[in-house]
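Quick sanity check, Peroxisomal biogenesis factor 11 beta:
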Amino acid sequence: AAQYACSLLGHALQKHGASPELQKQIRQLEGHLSLGRKLLRLGNSADALESAKRAVHLSDVVLRFCITVSHLNRALYFACDNVLWAGKYYLFSLIMNLSRDAYEIRLLMEQESSACSRRLKGSGGGVPGGIETGGSGGPGTLGGGLPQLALKLRLRVLLLARVLRGHPPLLLDVVRNACDLFIPLDKLGLWRCGPGIVGLCGLVSSILSILTLIYPWLRLKP
C-alpha cells in the first residue's frame, strides 16, 4: 500500500509542478519499498504453493481448476518477480481469479433467480411482463422486443447488484482483482494506463487486501 501510495503521490506531484528534488525523493522511496517487497517474495511463493495444494481437493471442478492454476501462476510470479516476462504469470493468475469470480456470480445469480421464482409461485404471482414467455407482442414485433430486452437487462443488473451486496467477500474479490489487472497490463505494454492509474489501482487493491487480514470473514473461500 505504501509503495503504490508513493507512485500515486509522485504522479500527483509531477502533474502539479513540484520540485524535481522532491519528485526524486518520492521515486527513491518507492524504489526502496519495491525492493523490500521483492525480498519477501519467497514466503509468498511458499504460501501460494500451499494454497494450490489445498485447492486441488475441492469438489467443484471449475473452482478447482481456476483456484489451483491461479495459485500456481502466483507462485511463479512471486519466484520470478525480477524477470520482465514474469508479469505474464501474474496476468494469467488474475484472469483465473476473475474467471472464478464470474463463475461464482453466475451460480449465485441462478440460485437467487430460482428462489425468487419459487417465492412468486408460492404467493400466486406470475412472471412480470411476460419476461420469459415473450409477451403478447410476439418475437417479430420490434416495438415490443426492445422494451422487453431493456427490462430483462435491467432485471439482470438488479439481480447482480443484489447478489454482490449479499456477498461482500465476492464483491471485494472482484474489485481487488479488477484493480490488480491494470498493473501487469501496463507493465507488459498491453494497455498503457500511466503511473497515476497504476498507483491508484494498486493502492485500492492493497487496502482491500489489508481489510481481509483485519476481517478474515471478508476473504473469499475456498
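Posting the structure with no commentary besides this: Residues 127-142 have pLDDT under 50 and may be disordered.
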